[in-house]
Write a structure and sequence with these properties.
Blueprint lengths: L7 H11 L1 H21 L5 E8 L8 E10 L6 E10 L16 E9 L8 H68 L4 H32 L33 H11 L1 H22 L4 E11 L11 E9 L5 H68 L5 H35 L3 H4 L2
Antiparallel strand pairs: 1-2, 2-3, 3-4, 4-5, 5-6
Helix pairs in contact: 1-3, 2-3, 3-4, 3-6, 3-8, 6-7, 7-8
Length: about 450
């Protein structure tokens, strides 16, 4: 069964789906999702129960309390609903536990008016978990992008090794054919025996070249197997029949408007967006610590109604309003935390600007390299045409007896070298395009 050729798109899809580094990055994102769920759980309902019973002594009171509480994502607020009931006698200092025979039902609300009004630990943890999930998404993009660049490089190296093997195989076949012709000439007395020895030496040289090319192709295929995997994720080393006959079709970035393309890439670049997310995390933390410098002023309200009629003074609806004030007198630790975070934010801003400038420089150099590689590929192709014409002319002169095998071998070697250089230049051009797409995180956009 002959395996179909491996296209670049197939290879990159296989790497994205099965490469271990990509799978590890996906698990880091799954971890961040679990953290977000845990942070959201900070706003879940909570049920608390308390039972107190006097089992000995003069008083025999029993008290049961059930309380349902839920935090709200605003003003550090909490709402609660409570039911409590008591039975028996209590000492005077525990009269707060006494209820009617049907118990007491109550609802209430508490919230912060100063410290905790705009931000609190629970809200901070929730937002930080959301931002961390976004960060792991950018980290996964970074890992995938790096893997796609590595896979593309391995693919181009494999194609080059395959083309080199093909050239050296053809070169060896020509030498073997010439060996037969020369042996016949020596037999007929048209050529000297030493010419046959020279040709044998050339034949050995070309066999050595082919042997090296075979080994290079085997190594390139082994490297490619890291990214080419079966449905179970196991590496598969491709064979020679899977080498495509044509180079992958890639976008012609050299025709893009340079300034427009650079602006689009910089504006949407995942590494810069990840730094913006990190900055937001620092801003949120600074805001939280700034809140801690404020006085703590909490407001609470509670409505309660006893059920039953055992205790006369507990029959009416009760409403309780409370205020609690706490003022920090020494705030040096809080101020130090805020100052430290402000310095970290400024540092991150400088790093952001530096990264943006570096990316722009690398993209501009990449475009220059692309134009250069295109010119080099055109020159290499011209060299193929010239050396092939020289080879054909030398062969005709050899057939006419006006040349010798030494000159013909040189022409053939030069033509073979030119073919390899042309293939290498074409692959170099494709690789420069892929590196530019990788630098701009656009490989999946164009290779699909």
């Amino acid at each position: 069964y002959i395996q179909p050729p491996i296209g670049l798109t197939q290879l990159l899809n296989s790497a994205r789906q099965f490469y271990p580094k990509v799978l590890a990055a996906q698990q880091r994102q799954a971890h961040a999702k679990a953290q977000l769920i845990g942070a959201e759980g900070g706003y879940d309902w909570q049920l608390d129960q308390a039972l107190k019973a006097r089992t000995s002594g003069y008083y025999d009171g029993v008290y049961l309390e059930n309380k349902l509480t839920r935090p709200l994502p605003m003003m550090n607020a909490k709402v609660f609903a409570q039911y409590r009931i008591s039975d028996g006698d209590f000492p005077i200092y525990e009269q707060d536990w006494v209820t009617q025979d049907g118990g007491e039902a109550s609802i209430g609300l508490s919230l912060s008016l100063l410290q905790g009004r705009e931000n609190d630990e629970r809200r901070f943890q929730l937002e930080d978990a959301r931002l961390e999930l976004a960060l792991t998404g950018y980290e996964q993009l970074k890992v995938e992008n790096r893997v796609l660049i590595e896979a593309s490089t391995a693919y181009m190296s494999w194609l080059l090794a395959a083309r080199q093997q093909e050239v050296y195989r053809n070169l060896l076949q020509m030498a073997e054919l010439q060996q037969k012709v020369l042996r016949r000439r020596v037999t007929l007395g048209d050529s000297a025996e030493v010419d046959l020895l020279d040709q044998q030496q050339e034949l050995i040289k070309r066999r050595s070249q082919l042997l090296k090319a075979d080994n290079a192709l085997l190594k390139a295929a082994t490297q490619l197997s890291l990214y080419w995997r079966d449905d179970s994720g196991r590496p598969i080393r491709p064979d020679n029949t899977q080498v495509p006959t044509q180079l992958p079709k890639l976008p012609e970035l050299q025709h893009r408007e340079k300034s427009v393309w650079l602006a689009e890439v910089i504006a949407k670049h995942p590494q810069l967006q990840a730094m913006q997310v990190k900055r937001q995390q620092l801003e949120n933390k600074r805001h939280l610590h700034s809140e801690e410098l404020l006085p703590k002023l909490d407001f609470s309200v509670k409505l309660a109604q006893d059920l039953g009629n055992e205790v006369e003074n507990l029959n009416e609806l009760e409403s309780v309003v409370g205020l609690q004030l706490s003022v920090p007198l020494r705030r040096r630790q809080g101020k130090a935390k805020v100052s430290k975070l402000e310095a970290e934010i400024r540092e991150l801003d400088y790093r952001f600007n530096g990264l943006a400038e570096q990316l722009r420089s690398e993209l501009e150099n990449g475009l220059l390299e692309l134009h250069n590689s295109i010119a080099q590929a055109e020159l290499a192709q011209q060299q193929v045409t010239v050396t092939d014409r020289l080879r054909q002319g030398e062969y005709q002169r050899f057939e006419a007896g006006a040349s010798d095998m030494f000159r013909l071998n040189i022409r053939e070697q030069m033509a073979a070298r030119a073919q390899i250089d042309a293939v290498s230049a074409s692959l170099k051009q494709s690789l420069v395009v892929l590196e530019l797409l990788g630098l701009s995180y656009q490989i999946p956009q164009y290779i699909h």
